[in-house]
Amino acid sequence: MIAAAFVAARLFRPLRALTAAAGRFGAGDYAVRVAPAGAADVRSLAGQFNAMAASVADQATRLEEQNRALEDASRLKS
Prior knowledge:
mainly alpha; 81% helix
């Protein structure tokens, strides 16, 4: 019974962390990352989540910069 609880905690704690991070990410926190932990599949999922979050954060930054440049150009035309 104790071994089952240990295994469950080892598996579900990292999944809960990923779930919480996904919720924050969905709310717009593109800086959120998770520490790879747990079983190999869960660590892989955490690594993929972190790569996705970094990619989206970079794209959002580029879009914001492009938007500012377009707004500045529009102001200069006016």
